[in-house]
Write a structure and sequence with these properties.
mainly alpha, 3',5'-cyclic-nucleotide phosphodiesterase
């Protein structure tokens, strides 16, 4: 189940532009995303099938409602990776 959750988060983060803009996140970056955004995934998108486009649409739709830490981490990746 843990592996499926990580795959789901990867799909969700790709939906908000991480893979397209900054390349696939490195393992430490994936861990940072998971740490800061897993609660948001569970809150807004956890009832969706992890392999479908619905989870991508869910993250896009709820971007403004994501926690500040999650939005900040996503922003770091959109700018090309972790800074500092």
């Amino acid at each position: 189940m843990h592996h499926r959750f990580v795959v789901t988060l990867t799909i969700a983060f790709a939906a908000v532009g991480l893979d397209a803009r900054a390349g696939s996140p490195s393992k430490p970056d994936r861990e940072a995303l998971k740490a800061r955004c897993s609660g948001d995934y569970a809150t807004y998108c956890g009832d969706l099938p992890p392999d479908g486009p619905e989870v991508q649409a869910c993250f896009r739709k709820n971007m403004a409602d994501l926690s500040p830490a999650c939005r900040t981490e996503i922003g770091r990746h959109e700018r090309g990776g972790r800074k500092g």
